[in-house]
What does this fold into?
Amino acid sequence: MRTFITAISIGVALQASAIGITSPSGDIVLNVDVDASGVPIYSVDYKGKNLVSDSRLGLTADETSFADGFRIESVDTVTVDRSWEPVWGEYSTVRDHFKELAVNLKADNPERALTLRFRVFDDGLGFRYELPVQKGPNYLTLRGENTQFNYTDDHKLYCIPGDYDTDEYLFSETTFSGLPEALNSYRRHSEAQRTGGNTIQTPMLLKTGDGVYVNMHEAALDGYPAMLLDVDTENYDMTSHLVPDRLGVSAYLQLPFNTPWRTLIISDDARDILASQLVLNLNEPCAIEDTSWIKPMKFVGVWWEMFTGNQKTWAYSDDHLARPGETDYTKLTPNGRHPANTDNVKKYIDFAAENGIDGVLVEGWNEGWEDWASYRKNRQFLFDAPYPDFDLPLLRDYAKEKGVKLIMHHETAANAADYALQLDRAFQFMKDNNYDAVKTGYVGAIIPRSEHHTSQWMVDHARDVIERAADYQIMVDSHEAPRPTGLCRTYPNWLAQESARGGEFESMGGNPPSHTCILPFTRLKGGPMDYTPGLFQTDLSYYGEGKTDKAGTTLARQLALYLTMPSPIQMACDLPENYNRFPDAFQFIKDVPVDWSDSKYLEAEPNKYITVARRDKHSDDWYVGAITDGNARTALIDFSFLPKGEKYEATIYEDAPDANWETNPQAYRIRKVKVDSRTRLKQHLAPGGGAAIRVVPLK
Ligand code: NOJ
Ligand code: CA
It folds into this structure.
């Protein structure tokens, strides 16, 4: 790791004179000041134009206020240029290059101290509040954070509604002034859980009339609630809105405390937003000493069967009110529609072994699912109690013999308090049975009922699960957890999260093709998503049973998603029999890596298209993925990322000329061409389509 640090400390008292720093390149200019009431303010310019005009900063607690009365006591600046090597990711080395400004504020009567720390990078900036130990109260009941982002025009916004509990929404493409109407168009997902007003979630994307893109999010959310944004649709202004508990308390803090970083990724080139590692850079380095057990992987699973409308169930029996711990499950009447049974799981293990797929997820393996709908008790799921038709010792040995890893599923039904109590036993049970990865889930209202999915208590819970999983050398893929903020840098066993509307919705109303053209600009800036690509049978009417859903995708596009939705854990979500119907297309899923040494974003526009090339971390092979929205498109793939003079063979998995996500999704072609660094390929993408290319050096 190379590190250059230049520190200049200005230890003098300053009087209301603005202090500024720039990004290393000079394109981004940050100014900080206090106004006449002692309210800290900041502004941001980009390439000579104002982007964020004077905006307030501050925190309010029951015990005291950190919102006004401040003077600037001193400032510290430092320039840092260093790099680090992620355990997995889009790049083998990440450069962390910024100028930092720490503004030390003081207030009197009562005496208070607050430091604002800003880091300005070439691709954006982050800042946080640092509360040192105070002369006054050091235990705070935080009611709110008044971080303002004051824009000056009716910019375009790509966002989802504010919600304390769920982020499984489609994105709106709107403007400040259009936001109220856009938010009204959402089916009220969970009435009590939605915030009132014009509130949106992060990560979101903004685009100015001048073509400047800004991703707004937060980094290193730890010990604090998630941040939503209240939007003033007339003054083009946004203010932080911390997720409260049901008493209206945002956070209980013990000082000293640093808040998460508030982040703006800024560029006038959309590709830079996708390439940015700013959120990861603002997280702490890896906290796990030995990471050799953390292994990126692909998996199949007993999962999609339950979504295809064929009445298959997670539950073993249709008998309700079976009370785990008290009910003898062998006495329940099996419903015969339970795919997590020994024979079926063996088939998945065979399929994985035959195709070089690392893991098999099994959902519905454990006691408790009968009780979901009628849950009233304190304990629902047991994480060490397999159903009678799931022969764990047999499957454990069978999987081991075949060189396949079983992946555990822990659906908690949002009973997080009970899960926390069972955690050590559950993780030990996993280890005893040769599991080293778990998918967690929190469907429903959080128990304890005073909490929300993204309130401080749940943020703490999620962090606790990850840390304890690391103690057991367990990798985690969490669903319905607080949206990611780059903590996977610190805890790389946190391979992925759902935390957005994933592929499962193709069976529940569908995801339009544009959805996967906006997620990489928004949700993915926090960390990888378990999107579950690989859907080959996209028209669900195939299964009969009254299903009419049509996934917003062609088959070829599903292959491209392995590139455009990078994650160190990728599912091949469809049923083995569907892969067996299209073995030549499935070959791409078998081949595609999940860990990269380099990534080049070639073309991008939010909600419209993405073309990306990535180099395999363990070979000289490159892979290219291109996707479009509902419109056909010709992607222009510039192969100048290849080393000069070297020849490669490209295998192209593409939409057939007459392919179309709605009418002809399974029409694809596979062809081979020779390419080198001078190749410029015009690649057809069908409406809702895509292309996936494997590029291998010619020996
Ligand atoms: C929601 C998750 O996103 C999905 O993947 C899972 O199968 C169900 N919950 C059941 O736990
Ligand atoms: Ca979900």
